[in-house]
Hints:
Helices cover about 45% and strands about 20% of the residues. It is of the alpha/beta class and about 400 residues long. The strands form three sheets. It has a nine-stranded mixed β-sheet with strand order 9-10-8-7-6-5-4-1-11, sandwiched between helices. Strands 12-13-14 form a three-stranded antiparallel β-sheet, covered by helices on one side. Helix 3 (about 90-100) links the parallel strand 4 and strand 5. The longest helix is centred in the C-terminal third of the chain and has 17 residues, at about 355-370. It is globular and about 55 Å long. About 40% of the residues are buried.
Amino acid sequence: MIPADLARDQWREWLQQSSSNQHPVALYLHTPFCHHRCAFCPFYINRASPGYSRTYTDLLLREIAGTPAPGRTVNSVFFGGGTPSDLATEDLVRVLEQLRKQWQWTNATEITVEARIRGFTADKARIWWQAGVNRFSLGVQTTDSQLRRSLGRLADRREILDTLQQVTAATHAHVSVDLLYGLPGQTPEMLREDIRLLTDETAISGITCYELACFPNSPMAQAISQGRLPALPDSGQLASLYFAVREELADSGFFRHSLVHWHRRANDRCVYNRHVKDGGDLVPYGSGAGGNIGDRQLMLSRTLEEYRSLVSNDQKPITFASRLNLARRQIQAGITSGFENMRLRPESFEILGRDGRDYMAKILEQWRKSKLLDYECQLTPGGEFWAKTMEKNLLAAASHFA
Length: 402
């Protein structure tokens, strides 16, 4: 691990060295504030307080201004959190203007803002779209009002549909929603109804559907252990939920874009997600943001006090940095990209040498026999369902050889 003080001193040098790389770069901007914590969320850090938006944005602008921008094209910008859509309208515009001053991007650069339903208005979406945002990703999780209340989500089904209808009418941006399957008490019919409502009653362009990850010590895990929420579904129940999603989306006019994303507008391409899965360079900004440049992996200060102190002294607020094994990074990117595209690439294992390549070939052959892969290494429907476990196991196997 590289000491944080040394990493801060070398930050500009690393970025300048990366200017010889012809591949595009992505930017990630973190907003570590929420008005309240949802039961399932592992990303909650700070409760939003009055005036936080301007104060935090001023710091973010100072950090951006102090970060040299090498001569590489930006293919995607992602505002994540936290709840970036809770930033004041003018503050996010200020950030976009500063980024444009420093980085090169084109009309094709994807700019995404994560949003929650409550507090996200058509006026805010319209102004941000006019400022350059061309994609909004809204965390819906489920449209079932009772299930949403059990998760700590505030908006009900009617508010969800109204907001999506208003936002899609106000802009020409892509509007994608996130759904979760595997929630306590969720049924396949609930998921089918989610998809029917979202596809029939709104003009959203995409749906991303993830399996719930219930983190230890989260409010959800505690509620389940105390009997205040139903138990999590077993693997058979999860499979029923997943295939309900798959079948309903196939009948809805949406097309499969990646392992987790479906769209009905082909140019909703999830550029940022693909870039990260492919192992592309990612420049982080904001308290709690993470990223990587070349063979360096970085994490910025999670505590606001430290973040404020370092940025105010014109230092990149790095609290963790490590050197990456480039061969390992390359094989990891080949594996994660393969699963994202639902087709593994055995040629990507060549870097592991003969022993590693042969070992990985045995794993793939076993998966073919188990009907998780076909003979072109395409995931079968069963492989799609087990993809997360398969990916984890393949990455672990590859780590012994790279």
